[in-house]
Design a protein that fits this description.
The protein is of the alpha/beta class and 272 residues long. The chain is built from nine helices and 14 strands.
């Protein structure tokens, strides 16, 4: 059994992912109700005690809602995050200080190698994670207002890219959100729009076809993540991004494989 991925929830209301191999089980963020996380683990034939580590991207509630509960239940698990996020989590949840391990470069949990990298978001020290095992790599990039060369390079080496497509810009502009919130979402420290996600995917494909070192071959799998419930939908995100990529002669199913994650429905356990 190689590297596998499951999304328990992905959206502006809460996020939680599972990455597993035959010997290692890791959660990325725990921003949904603990009951849902346990139900998700159960659907993957796992118990909370079998979690070997919890990766935390940043300290916002939709990413750490059940951190205290899961840290207690995952008896073998430590919390891995950036220095700034560790500081913020310690302030919010001081009882977890002994569980947190600060990591600012590549490290291993069991047979999974983990590479953190910086994001651009209005949090203390947000990071994304690229994980690999058995020659397969999954990269998770959400909660970022801009795409950097580092993100693009890491994404281009990935078999599965979990990428934010938070909002449709026109829908956000017409929404009932306060002006300051709209400005925050659209800022360089906010969230990637559908158009920005399409541009990201296109630039990643250019890197992949250049044949550089470490680039994966074959069609890249893409899962659109962290969709806003109010300002986007899976159908809207897929339509906008497919149309934008079609303009660049990239055709879904032929050049890439893409689907959208849900805030309410877990995926099946996907083999990478």
């Amino acid at each position: 059994m190689g590297l596998r991925f499951c999304s328990f929830a992905s959206g502006s209301t809460g996020n939680c992912y599972l990455l597993k191999t035959e010997n290692t089980n890791i959660l990325v963020d725990v921003g949904i109700a603990g009951k849902r996380i346990i139900e998700g683990l159960d659907s993957c034939a796992l118990k909370p005690e079998q979690i070997d580590g919890i990766l935390v991207t940043h300290e916002h509630t939709d990413h750490i809602k059940s951190l205290r509960m899961m840290a207690k239940k995952a008896l073998n698990g430590k919390i891995y995050t950036s220095e700034g996020t560790a500081y913020s989590v310690n302030e919010k949840l001081p009882m977890l200080a002994g569980n947190i391990r600060v990591k600012d470069c590549s490290f291993k949990v069991g047979d999974i190698e983990i590479e953190p990298f910086s994001l651009s978001h209005d949090a203390e020290d947000p990071v994304g994670f690229s994980v690999q095992s058995g020659g397969k790599r999954v990269t998770i990039i959400t909660d970022t207002g801009v795409a950097t060369k580092e993100m693009l390079s890491i994404a281009a080496k990935s078999d599965l890219l979990v990428l934010e497509a938070n909002h449709e810009v026109n829908i956000l502009h017409c929404s009932s959100y306060p002006y300051e919130l709209k400005r925050r979402i659209l800022s360089d420290h906010g969230h990637l729009s559908n158009d920005a996600a399409a541009e990201f995917i296109y630039e990643v494909e250019q890197l992949r076809t250049s044949g550089g070192e470490g680039m994966t071959s074959g069609k890249q799998k893409i899962l659109l993540a962290h969709l806003s419930r109010e300002n986007n939908s899976p159908m809207q995100a897929m339509l906008t991004i497919k149309n934008r990529l079609f303009e660049e002669d990239m055709i879904a199913g032929e050049d890439y494989l893409m689907n959208a994650l849900s805030a309410d429905v877990a995926t099946r356990l996907l083999e990478i």
